[in-house]
Amino acid sequence: MEIKSFNKIEKATETGRKELFRIGTALLFIVGIMLYTSQQGLNSTDQIMLVIAGMIGGYMAMNIGANDVANNVGPAVGSKALTMGGAIIIAIIFEAAGALLAGGEVVGTIKKGIINPDLIANSQTFIWLMMAALLAGAIWLNLATIAGAPVSTTHSIVGGVLGAGIAAGGWDIANWATLGKIASSWVISPVLGGLIAAGFLLLIKRTITYQTDMISAAKRIVPLLILFMVWAFSTYLIMKGLKKIWKIDITTALMAGAAVSAVVYIFIRPIIHKMADRLENNKESVNNLFTMPLIFSAALLSFAHGANDVANAVGPLAAINDALTSGGVASKAAIPMWVMMIGAVGIALGLALYGPKLIRTVGSEITELDKMRAFCIAMAAAITVIIASQLGLPVSSTHIAVGGVFGVGFLREFIKASHIDRIEEIKHHYDNTNSDEIDAFLAEFKKAPIKKKGILLQELKDKSSKAHLTKKERKALGKVYRNELVKRSALLKIAAAWVITVPASGAMAALIFYTIRGMMVQ
Question: In this predicted model, what pLDDT tens digit does every residue of 241-271 receive, in sequence order?
């Protein structure tokens, strides 16, 4: 009896123990930062400021890992190409590698030029401003993670810098034209990502899964899709992941990506053919051909994210460190290795401790993903960034990935509704006819490729004297048979979080700046 009671107590407290472990590990990381930054040899006041800034920077890095990294590996986990543990290990390795190998040696002190540094009174005010912006961005990311909403890290920092900047220098300090471009990305990023992901999914359906012989179709198309994926990801990695250590124009990047993809194609084509020969002629089997491309895409996206977005965590910290050591406000600040390590380790810890929640949200709680759909989302992430970069459009990798998830979900809804509409029209033409004849036609229609389906429908219409379904009748059928494959509550929650990210982090940053200034002046 007593043993059973102990077992019940252990089960009841299991969740609490896990949460205590997460909090304890996070606190150990923050304490480690505090101890290291306290040994930097500055005067007492500046030393305290650096310690506080380092702790906030570590907190920000963990929140980036908990929220933002989910977009890179979420679709692969949701499609079961990777387990949760495998995805976290891959993301940690490649995020850290991207940050440490390609994160760059300098960083802009004013994120994306959203405020005018000339209107900042002095280095002390600048330090308070950056601390407020960093803390506000971190708190907002923390709140979004708790709510299960993937939001843009960049937008969180932009809002923080804007709010603290206005508090420090008034409304004229803001670069409203730049902010207008950033606001436009709220629409551009998810729409572009969704359209590209849906376009690739439609291409795969029409060229592979809608064909009678899926295996033969897969042998032809999958190597070409991988060729295009390698080209897109190589170009993406050269342009974005390596841009801080290797400056290169788009033409050269595209040519280098094409060379890499051609070499990969030569090796991958016979491998795909051998794998396909062992598969059954159905969609579930063909899905397995996309497993390895998905794993590689998750790794490369994580590397590029680590190289780029680690600056969101350590950029303000590097700027504060530079201001404290030099006594001035520079447009660029060097990133010491200890600062970069805080970013890399913090992102890895945040992902390992709190990342699974957002990975599940992106991977399975918005819409059901298989490997083909996840592949399309990964492709959309790389291609959208390349296109947007050349058009000078500000886009968010978070918004692109989540937009891609919604894009494939809504396409599935449209295709399912269209299929039901066709079936109802067939039944409408066969009204008062033997049910065996209807079943035979439907069986033939289901197996037929797209072109044959169109021919069968036209032949049916030509034979039948019945009127086609009216627009009103189709609309009524749609309401009856509508099958929502995208979770509407998730759509509303995420959209709301995106819209309020900049103003929410801005308002918090202004409040924090006034609080810090009030304490320091006294």
Answer: 666 666 777 888 889 889 999 999 999 999 9
Question: Which strand (E) or helix (H) includes residue 42?
Answer: none
141 contacts 66 by C-beta, under 8 angstroms: yes
3 state SS of 6: helix
Q: Where are the domains of the chain?
A: 19-413+485-521
Q: Which residues pair with 107 in a beta bridge?
A: 333
pLDDT confidence tier of residue 111, bands split at 50, 70 and 90: low
Burial 491-520 (b: 16+ CB within 10 A, else e): bebbeebbebbbebbbbbbbebbeebbeee
Helices (H), 464-487: 471-481
**Rounded Cα–Cα distance for residues 253 and 263 (Å):** 16
Determine the pLDDT at residue 273.
93
* pLDDT score at 481: 44
DSSP type of residue 330: -
Tokens of 312: 């969101």
As a whole-number percent, the residues of the chain with pLDDT over 90 amount to 33
Write out the two tokens for 94: 């490649």
SS3 at position 334: strand
Decide if 518 contacts 142 (C-beta within 8 A).
Answer: no
Number of alpha carbons in the 13 Å side-chain half-sphere of residue 444: 14
How many Å apart are CA 260 and CA 234, to the nearest integer?
7
Q: Of the given ranges (14-23, 355-364, 426-435), which has the lowest mean pLDDT?
A: 426-435
pTM: predicted TM-score of the whole model, two decimal places: 0.82
* Planar angle of CA 486, 491, 494, nearest 5 degrees: 145
- Secondary-structure breakdown of the chain: helix, strand, coil percentages, each rounded to the nearest 5: 80, 0, 15
Q: Give the number of other CB atoms < 10 A from CB of residue 488.
A: 8
Question: What sign has the CA pseudo-torsion 6, 10, 16, 20?
Answer: positive
Higher pLDDT, 135 or 459: 135
Do 346 and 60 touch, CB atoms closer than 8 A?
yes
For residues 333 and 317, give the distance between their C-alpha atoms in angstroms, rounded to a whole number.
10
